[in-house]
Amino acid sequence: MGHAQRDKNRDKMNPAPIPTSFGAWVRARRRQLDLTQAELGQRAGCSEAAIRKIEAEERKPSRQLAELLAAALQIPAEQRETFLQAARGVLVEDLLSETDAPPHRLPVLLTSTVNRTRDLARVMTLLKDPTVRLVTLVGPPGIGKTRLSVECGYALLGDFPDGIWFVDLVEVFNPDFFIPTLAREIPDLSLPPSPEPKQLYSALRPRQALLILDNFEQIVEGAALDVAGLLQACPRLKLLVTSRVPLNLHSEHEYPLPPLSLPPPQTAPQVLMEFEAVQLFTRRIHQHQPAFEITAENAGAVITICTLLDGIPLALELAAASLRQMTLDEMLQLLRSQDWVGQISTPARDLPTRQRTLENVIAWSYSLLDDHQKQGFSRLGVFSNWFDLEAAADICELDTIATSHLLNALSNHSLLVRGVFAGKNHWRMLELIHAYARTRLTPQQRIHVEQRKAQHFLQRLETLPQSPAEREAFFRVNYSNLGSSLIWAIEAQQTGLAYQLSRFLNEDYWSVHGYFREGLEMLRKLLELPGDIPPALRAQRLQLASDFAWQQHDFETAILYCREAAELGRTHALRQQYPLYLNRLGRIYIEQERYAEAKQAL
After folding, report:
1. Of the chain's two ends, which shows fewer C-beta atoms within 10 Å, N or C?
2. Count of other CB atoms within 10 angstroms of residue 243
3. Of the candidates 376, 379, 385, which has an alpha carbon nearest to the alpha carbon of residue 449?
């Protein structure tokens, strides 16, 4: 026997220590056995490309493929379970240790955790309640449902003597595979590979255990009743489910997981770390920039980035990873651009592909919608901030009943947030979901939907209620949509529509709440548009621009616009408006102590 063969046999008998990652483990063991990637793929029944991606940490294998790889790589029996768990990004505690800790199969959290004290306490209280059997953590993509469920599992180990078992359902797309997956992932059940539900129920009936079912959303339609059957048959069992969609079971207790807490604008740098979003953002930056600190100079950028990302944990983590290639100011500029959602990413190889970019994360939820819901979701992405049922129906070109069903469905998928203003339901998308929705429209569709939105809000302007309180409430909720429609009309050079929409800038709401800078910028662009505008209308907008500039002490701009308005009043005999424009011009001169010019104007 040659030296090479003896070395190979020795390696088989004495395998090397377990590497730190699953991909490295597969690569090291394959090389021990002197196999190429193609040869290993042939033995395991998969392609060479699949092996290459697994070794590069670009893909996590299914449980079935991991078992085939374990056999092909001749993983020793005592390491087999650890190998299978490492394949899923999970490490198993040594169940044969001398400690008295209850058995469990919970993922190891490899990064620092932001302290969601309130949410953790509330979910634990629910699970400790004898009358509560099923808790569902519901929320939008990237909100942190999986991490909170794992934290609950570790915190509750002493409450479930028969164990806490984490079951990842991310690759289970067929509800028929739900029961077999549970049977395979929960140890010591002694069940066949594809058991009947009654066999699983019988095996679990005596156990006082907690099952954590992660990523349930893609099988909720077909497998929710299996969950109900499990609870009915196993009275000592409790379930903690993470899903973007509620299960809608009678025994279900939903816990909508909120975003991380956000600092208000102008928060002092020294107290920013009291807010969860800032904690997470800075901790992830420290993973590649250990010297990073929040200072008076960068505090504003940190607050704005956390706010623009709505305190969504995964968005903050990916943004922090993206800071390897850009500065905070460049990140801010990116987040204020169109279609930024596909550009926020991480190079981390040990994350599944669907979690490496924000676009992939949201696409997962989008893929669960039917065609009708996808179309409505894309159209609703045209709104800025809150919108009501009336606006949604107009944009989606549906009646109110069909629109109501659509809004409820998208809310159930955690793609819309609901709020109540002045006793009326409103909805909005979180910013990262909003950015994704906008990418789902073709340029032609975008023009059509933007046109409908602009016309809708123009009609609302023309039928404003007379009550000051009602008018105030309307502008408070809709100013973002009014502003974005005006900007779109200006950019599309729809001069007539833009001038009509700009009337909302003249309402008391804008003056009372101090939107002078934003209003002046919109009016500046409006007044540069080509086209024939009635002199009286143009003069009114010139005077409004002058007022906004005056309020900001930009006297030169205020005088420039006011003079043009007065000239239009003189040349076109605007008998009512002309004296008002001269009076305003004189007052501006007085404030500048230019009394001779003020006297002439007045």
Report:
1. N
2. 25
3. 379
- Helix or strand or coil: residue 188? coil
Domain total of the chain:
3
User: Which of 569, 568, 564, 572 lies closest to 545 in space, CA to CA?
Assistant: 564
Please report, as a single letter, which amino acid is at residue 600.
Q
**pLDDT at residue 7 in the model:** 42
CA distances (Å), origin 512, targets 72, 455, 506, 542: 73, 26, 11, 20
Only one residue has tokens 């220590």, namely 17
152 and 209 co-located in one domain = yes
The pLDDT assigned to 128 comes to: 93
CATH number (domain holding residue 52): 1.10.260.40
What number of other Cβ atoms are within 10 A of residue 171's Cβ? Answer: 17
Residues 174 and 282 in one domain: no
Q: Which amino acid is at 120?
A: L
- By three-state DSSP, how is residue 345 classified? strand
| Collapsed DSSP state (helix, strand, coil) of residue 130 | coil
Which residue shows structure tokens 């390696």? 11
CB atoms within 10 A of CB 600: 12
Residue with tokens 């609302």, as numbered in its chain: 460
* 3-state secondary structure (DSSP) of residue 210: strand
Query: What are 399's two structure tokens?
Result: 């009646």
Distance CA(417)–CA(430), nearest Å, equals 7
Query: Using CA atoms, how far apart are residues 82 and 154, in angstroms rounded to an integer?
Result: 19
Position 559, amino acid: I
Phi, psi of 498 (to 5 degrees): -60, -45
For residue 173, give the CATH number of its domain: 3.40.50.300
Task: Examine residue 275 and state whether it is found in any structural domain, yes or no.
Answer: yes
Q: Which domain holds residue 74?
A: 3-87
